[in-house]
Structures are given as C-alpha cells and as structure tokens.
Amino acid sequence: MKKETEVREIIEYYAGQKEAKSQENLTAMLREIQEKEGWIPAEACSIAAEKIGIKESMLACIIKLYPSLKSAPYVHEILLCTGERCQRKDSLELLAAVKEKLQTDKEGLSKDKRILLTTRNCLKKCSTSPNIYVDKVHYPNMTKDKLLKLIDKLRQE
Ligand code: FES
Fold it and tell me: Model-level pTM greater than 0.85?
C-alpha cells in the first residue's frame, strides 16, 4: 500500500537522525505520520519504536502530551470540565450522560470511534460553568439536553 510505504519512509528518515531518540525528533515524526494518515496508528508506533530502539510507551506519552496528536481516527473531540465549580453545576452528570450515549471505552473513545471524550480539571472559564469545548469551540452554561442534542448533530457530520 502506497500510504504504508510512505509512513515507513517517514520512520526511516527520523530513525536515521542524529538525535533520533530526542522528544523533538519523535514529535516531528509523529506529526508527519499524522499528516499522512490523519491519525497515528498503533502499528506505526510499534514499527517506529523498534527502528529507533525506544519503548512504544514513550511515543504514547508524547501523543498524550500534545492534544493535536491523535491516537485514534476520531472526527470530533469533546472536552468536558470536571473542575470544582463545574461539578457544582452538575458537570459529572453531563459526563455520565455523554459516556452512556457514546459508550466510550477507557480512553474516552466512542464505540463508533468518531468522537473522543476528554476531561480537564478547570478550563479557566468558571463563571460560565459548566463548560465544554467541542472541536475547540467553547460552549458555556451547558445542559444535559443541549449536550445530547449537540452530540446527535456531531454524529450526522
Ligand atoms: S471549574 Fe470548570 S471552568 Fe473552572
């Protein structure tokens, strides 16, 4: 497959760099793989780890560190605040409702793999609690009804 060959070429290139194991080099490699694939497949991480001589968990850590790097081919991302002030306005109830609707796995990925649910402990917008972001757009004063409708809309896109 042409794409697979291109990903292998990317890995070969970065594996051949002087500072191949540096975070900077690994991050650049992951970004390039994502540009090619739209996300970073586990298989690519496994090949890269072997070529470079590092643990796959190191690449997983870098992917976690940069929100722009995707370890799954999801299309939308919901970020829900679980900070104290949002909790006081029922953000945990929102979280449970989203989890149930999307049937997320332990990584927060929906059953259909199209939506990723993540949480953060305070989004620095406490005056409009509860807060969520969908695809980096802020939705203040969220309610369960509004959120479930929003998810229905995302699923149609
Ligand atoms: S606690 Fe949610 S924005 Fe601060």
Answer: no
> Which residue among 79, 81, 142 has the greatest number of ligand 1 atoms within 8 angstroms of its CB, and so is best to mutate?
81
- 125 CA: nearest ligand 1 atom: 3
Angle (CA) 12-66-70 rounded to 5° is 70
Provide the domain limits for residue 27.
Answer: 2-65
CA distance 120 to 67: 12
pLDDT tens across 47-68, in order? 999 999 999 999 999 998 998 8
Torsion of CA 51, 24, 107, 4, to 10 degrees: -40
Same domain, 11 and 57: yes
**pLDDT digits 0-9 by tens, 88-143:** 999 999 999 999 999 999 889 999 989 999 999 999 999 999 999 999 999 999 99
Ligand 1 centroid – CA 34 distance (Å):
31
Same domain, 98 and 140: yes
Question: Which of 129, 133, 139 to probe ligand 1 with, by most ligand atoms within 8 A of CB?
Answer: 129
